C-alpha cells in the first residue's frame, strides 16, 4: 500500500471521467490525467475497486461514477494505517466489512518451536508437488464447501488466483497435503515466487480439526522454506478467525499491518 495524502484545491475544475476499458476509468482536467479507477472480479465473484489520485475532489468523483456504473455490493481494501485513504472511502459511503492481520512468520524451527512437531498419529504429510491432483482438488472443494457453510469463505485470506472459472487449484505444485488412511484431510499452499514467500492457505477438513493437523502442516511448510534459506514468510489472518490467530501467535509470528476490507451495499 502506498501512502495516500490528498490535496484540497478549491480552484481545481471538476474532472472529466471517462471509461477507457471494461475495468478502468480515467479522470482528466484539460487533457491532463489526474486520477484513475479500476475494478477487478475476484474468484469468489466479488468486485473490488481501487482509485489512484492525489485530489480529494477527484477521488469523490471517481467513486460516484464507479458506484453508478457497477453492480453492488462493491468492495475495496486499504491499509488501516493509511488514515487519509480510509477516511476518503468512509466519506463516500463505504463501511467496514472485515479486518485482516498480516503476519511476518519466522521459518527457523528453533524460533517457532516447531522443531519437534510431528504429524498426529496416523497422519502423514506429502511434500509440495507430490500430491495426486484429483484427490487434491477434491479436498480443496470439500473444505471450501465446509467453510462456506459455516463462517463463509470471505473470512478466509484474500485470494488472487488466476485460472479458468471455478478452478481454485491453479498450481497443484504449491500444495503440501495431510493424509489419513489414504484420505486427504488438509492442505497448505506456499507461494515462493515472490520477494517474501507467502503462506496462502492452511485448511483442514472439519472432522479432522483440533487434532494438530494444521500445526503439522505449518511446521512442514516452514521447515521446507528454512532449509532453502527462505524467511521470514508472511500470511494474512481474518481477525475473527481465532484458531488461525492462535496458531500463528503461538509460533512467534508478528503482526505487521492490518488491512481493512470496506463494502458499499
Automatic annotation (TrEMBL):
Gene Ontology molecular function: any one: acyltransferase activity, transferring groups other than amino-acyl groups
UniProt-listed SUPFAM superfamilies: Acyl-CoA N-acyltransferases (Nat)
Record keyword Acyltransferase present: yes
Domain N-acetyltransferase: 123-265
Gene3D superfamilies: 3.40.630.30
Keyword Transferase (UniProt): yes
Superkingdom in the source lineage: Bacteria
Swiss-Prot/TrEMBL keywords: Acyltransferase, Transferase
Annotated Pfam families: Acetyltransf_1
Stored InterPro entries: Acyl_CoA_acyltransferase (IPR016181), Bact_Acetyltransf (IPR050832), GNAT_dom (IPR000182)
Official protein name in the record: GNAT family N-acetyltransferase
Organism: Antrihabitans cavernicola
